[in-house]
Design goal:
Helices cover 51% and strands 10% of the residues. The strands form three sheets. Strands 8, 9, 10, 11, 12, 13, 14 and 15 form an eight-stranded mixed sheet that branches. Strand 13 (762-769) and strand 14 form a beta hairpin. It is globular, with a radius of gyration of 32 Å. The two termini are 52 Å apart.
């Protein structure tokens, strides 16, 4: 039988590619929130751009060029609508070293080449691979850059000029402290004081004035004081735009220039992508849940950053990257579209053309103090606590030290090497202890069992007395083939000598013991495996032809995939013999007390989904609803079939479940039917039911929604994409039910999305937060020790 989709009056929407650009509006409109947000971002970006240009030793106009290009080009073509791009403090050290080695014109050419490299990486769609870098390395890189920036700007704050490296700046501090310039120090101290105190102004008046950016107030205040007091301090000197330096042909060693291109590409790409992920989280946490703001498309964002770097370098600007400070200000100001980012770039252009006399009044020590504070803030205490909690402080420290002492590229390479070493150490660290309790030998194995631990495991096993009762407790999430063979062979020998072996997990729950792997054993039990009782669970028991006996009475082999009444009876008999004695007390308790499940589990009727297996649940844990396609009809559209709605109402109102999970799976026949069906299909019951999946098909084809992703990758085909999209859509349908909406508002109910890949035996959870009714449409792989992080923010 061919599955088909329900009847529809219009043709089935064409499935769009995952990176299709959003539909262009017919005319350019600017929301009021975008206009006000653009002004706020502009007031922050103007002094920061000048300060970063000063810190790199580049022409001061180059900072304004990069800020304008970041707003107009990256803002228009990037994939993160609310991310603000421009000259970033994280690029200060890289750019300063390139200018020192090759000069400004060659540095501009290197920026253009880095932009072209980013465009190439975007075409290869490798943007999400950048998120695989350990957060400890990223945070360490940013902290190392911040330390280097702060040390260099400290010399300008004290009235002198910085050296070429962080080590030289440290060594030069004693002599600099002996020759302080009071005027420069006073302006710098005033700037730092305003930066630190402005956000802490108390009262209602303080709340109002804090809307003006602290960076603007600090620089403006220092400028006013220097002007009225007549202090002799160096000031901004913007040359005429007619003499602005443009890029030239790269001059220098090929390897050195290639290293510069690689460094700028790496730093700008990783920083921009991590910042885009962080912006998505900030948007989702807004009171409106980010309604109407599309999520970031990372490959498109990488392309936008590449285009911005090509244009910025060609116009004589600094390298461009996504900037966290300005992006946070943009989101906090209530921006709703990329218009705010583009308008901020326009204001930068107007300021660079019309406000040159005003900008020339700014004292350089004020800009240096501003950038120094930014550098210090890049060493985040929160990041240090995070890496300490995850036991990656060594990776963080090595990366910071390498960036400060050697360089960014070298420091990151050292951090990656140490991260790999730490991962290998954790993989090979296995503790094996032995004790005797109540006449039984207890062998505790802590950590992962790999071939490297086999010698110690074998030695510990063979030290156990022959014929003794042994309990092997495995507290780890991985056992390779070598370790399994060692444990299996020892178990066979110990059982042959009259002993007993019980294998348990970390909680003490018994698991199946390893079985002998000899040829004779395999011949006797060809379908037995130790890793799960669900595999070929009718193992060794083929029903007899006459239906009167067990496997010893089987007259002829039965096809392994054939399901008969005799086969069912054999399974029931096995349950009564083996399982019923183990669960009888628990079922008796449930019969007396009634059911109190903790969650409603709504999944597909597919025979390959064994809910108790994939959720490790038992009797009374799940209130399960199964139907073709794990569909949740919208209220009022059930058309005579109220079974799903009744189950939802009963679970939420009567059973008071705490969560509802919608679980889809790979290779779903219902989703295949939606893709292959058409409006002319006959009106069968199946087609009438599948019409509830129409919104999922429309969501996948809509340009307003980014395609769902699974563990950092795009789906393998359209069927898998629809399976993932359907889970997200059915969660939206659940919220339309009044009891569900009320419990969500009370905070007593949560919704979860789940996807089970049958071929991989792997479960994935939908990332996002129910509190704001927002999902990332990213399904995260569930590891043995817990969900794996996929979005890392800088």
């Amino acid at each position: 039988m061919t599955l088909c989709t329900p009847d529809r009056t219009t043709t089935r929407p064409r499935v769009q590619r995952p990176h299709s650009p959003p539909e262009r509006p017919r005319r350019f409109r600017v929301a009021g929130a975008d206009l006000s947000a653009s002004v706020a971002v502009f007031l922050i970006a103007l002094p920061l751009s000048l300060g970063i240009a000063l810190a790199t030793g580049a022409p001061l106009q180059s900072g304004l060029v990069a800020a304008a290009v970041g707003g107009l080009v990256a803002g228009r073509f990037g994939g993160s609508p609310l991310q603000v791009s421009g000259p970033a403090a994280g690029l200060t050290v890289v750019t300063a070293e390139l200018i020192h080695l090759y000069g400004w014109r060659t540095t501009c050419a290197i920026t253009v080449l880095a932009g072209l490299a980013q465009l190439g990486l975007s075409a290869l769609r490798v943007a999400r691979s950048a998120l695989a870098v350990s957060p400890a390395i990223v945070h360490g890189m940013l902290a190392g850059i911040g330390v280097t920036i702060a040390l260099a700007q400290l010399h300008i704050v004290l009235g002198s000029t910085p050296q070429s490296s962080a080590v030289d700046n440290v060594l030069g501090l004693p002599s600099q402290l002996a020759d302080i310039h009071p005027a420069a120090l006073a302006i710098s101290a005033l700037t730092v004081a305003v930066l630190l105190c402005w956000p802490k102004l108390p009262g209602r008046a303080g709340q109002l004035v804090r809307k003006v950016p602290a960076a603007l107030v600090a620089v403006a205040g220092a400028t006013a004081v220097a002007a009225f007091a007549g202090l002799a301090v160096p000031r901004v000197d913007l040359p005429s735009w007619s003499s602005h330096a443009l890029p030239g042909l790269p001059e220098g060693p090929v390897l050195g220039i290639a290293a510069g291109v690689l460094t700028i590409t790496l730093v700008t790409s990783v920083q921009s992508l991590l910042s885009a992920v962080a912006v998505d989280k900030l948007v989702a946490n807004r009171p409106d849940g980010g309604h109407g703001v599309p999520r970031s498309v990372l490959d498109r964002e990488l392309a936008g950053q590449g285009a911005a770097n090509v244009v910025s370098g060609a116009l004589g600007g600094l390298p461009v990257a996504g900037v966290a400070v300005r992006s946070v200000a943009n989101v906090s100001a209530g921006a709703v579209s990329r218009a705010s980012t583009m308008l901020h770039g326009l204001w930068i252009v107007l300021a660079a053309l019309l406000l040159v006399p005003v900008l020339d009044l700014i004292p350089l020590p004020a800009l240096a103090a501003l950038v120094m504070v930014v550098g210090i803030q890049m060493v985040s205490i929160t990041h240090i606590r995070t890496v300490t909690r995850h036991r990656e402080v060594v990776v963080y420290a090595v990366t910071v030290t390498g960036v400060v002492l050697v360089g960014i590229l070298e420091g990151v390479a050292l951090g990656i090497a140490v991260a790999i070493a730490v991962a290998l150490h954790r993989l090979t660290r296995t503790r094996i202890t032995r004790e005797e309790r109540d006449g039984r030998q207890l062998l505790h194995v802590r950590g992962q069992l790999t071939f490297l631990a086999v010698p110690r495991l074998s030695r510990a096993l063979h030290q156990l007395p022959h014929g003794s009762d042994v309990v092997v407790e495995l507290d780890g999430s991985f056992m390779d083939h070598a370790a399994y063979e060692a444990l299996s062979d020892w178990t066979a020998g110990h059982l042959a000598r009259g002993g007993t072996v019980e294998t348990t997990g970390p909680s003490g729950a018994r698991i199946a013991e390893p079985q002998p792997t000899t040829a004779s054993a395999c011949a006797a039990h060809t379908c037995c495996r130790p890793w799960t009782p669900w595999h070929n669970h009718q193992c060794g028991e083929q029903p007899a032809v006459d239906g009167t006996g067990g496997p010893e009475e089987t007259a002829a082999p039965v096809e392994p995939r054939r399901t008969t009444g005799l086969h069912l009876a054999s399974g029931i008999g096995k349950f009564q013999r083996n399982t019923a004695p183990l669960v009888r007390d628990e079922l008796a308790r449930l019969a007396r007390e009634g059911q109190t499940p903790s969650q409603l589990f709504l999944t597909c009727a597919d025979s390959r989904l064994v809910t108790s297996m994939i959720t490790s649940s038992g009797p009374g844990d799940l209130f399960t609803v199964r139907n073709v396609g794990n569909l949740v009809p919208l209220p009022g559209e059930e058309s005579g079939d109220d079974s799903v709605a009744a189950a939802i109402e009963y679970a939420v109102e009567v059973l008071r479940v705490e969560s509802i999970t919608v679980c889809g799976h790979s290779g779903c026949g219902a989703m295949q039917a939606l893709l292959n069906g058409g409006p002319d299909d006959p009106p069968t019951p199946l087609r009438r039911w599948l019409r509830h999946g129409g919104p999922s098909l429309e969501r996948m084809a809509s340009r307003r929604h980014a395609w769902a992703r699974i563990s950092g990758r795009l789906p393998a085909d359209a069927v898998e994409q629809l399976c993932l999209t359907n889970v997200v859509q059915q969660l939206d349908h659940l919220r339309a039910y009044e009891p569900v909406a009320r419990r969500l508002a009370e905070g007593t109910l949560t919704l979860h999305g789940m996807y089970f890949h049958v071929g991989e035996a792997q479960a994935y959870l939908l990332s996002g937060t129910d509190e704001v009714h927002s999902y990332d449409d990213v399904f995260t792989q569930v590891m043995p020790t817990g969900p794996r992080e996929t979005a890392r923010a800088s």
